GTP pyrophosphokinase YwaC ([Ruminococcus] torques), 240 residues
Amino acid sequence: MGRRELEERIEKRREDFVRNSLLSDEFIDFVQENLKPVNTMMAYYQCAIMEVETKFKVLSEQHSLEYDRNPIESIKTRVKSMESLLKKIRRKNIPLTIDAIEENIQDIAGVRVICAFQDDIYKLAKCFLDQDDVILIQKKDYIANPKPSGYRSLHLIVKTPIFLKEGKKMITVEVQLRTIAMDFWASLEHKLRYKKSIPEDQSKYLAEEMMDCAQISSALDERMQKVRDVIMQAEKKEEE
Ligand code: GTP
Ligand code: MG
């Protein structure tokens, strides 16, 4: 790296730093001035998470009763942290108002459903979306169309009601459905991505390596699914 390039980089870092800290102040002021509405907003997102999690637990329970098998391995939920909410507001240039945040940021409430097999994902998604109080806003099928990184999952942005004493309020929730293999890959890739010490000349090699791992994990899902299908066929025959 030349001296000029290095200086440019340092200057950019400095500008980023100044911009971030300025906006941080603005954000802190906003939170302080709107402490109650901000807390209420976050509490509503938490309530919507509980509603969505229950919906998946009910579907899983019913499936278990019917087929003696649980299609959901685990469910993880989270409300977006203030820090990452701020980063997104800044990145997307969203005005600092509760309405603008609710309207433009769709992943404040996050529910991740980890399934055993790939076809469980589509079955569960269909049952969930068929419910008359779940409104689909956006569907991204990164299983049929993986991201350039190799990332796979089915993403649903939905609106679902929470019931307050004044009546119902529709809340946006991001649901990510994945298999164990998809979750394994995504969790490790997420961890690796934040390692700052990766040398730049290795980054292409590392991206290719992660893509290769994603393909292996996808092949694994397919083989596991096939094994499951063979077993299910055998069970059906036995019942006949
Ligand atoms: P965000 O603004 O980051 O939420 O992205 P987006 O609005 O383009 O939505 P997208 O559906 O692409 O991704 C949303 C979420 O999916 C992220 O917050 C991650 O949880 C997950 N995700 C997407 N791409 C990747 C990836 O390449 N690796 C990993 N580990 N997770 C990913
Ligand atoms: Mg996100």
Remarks:
- The longest helix spans residues 203-239.
- The chain has a mean pLDDT of 90.
- The first strand starts at residue 72 and ends at 79.
- The chain is about 60% helix and 20% strand.
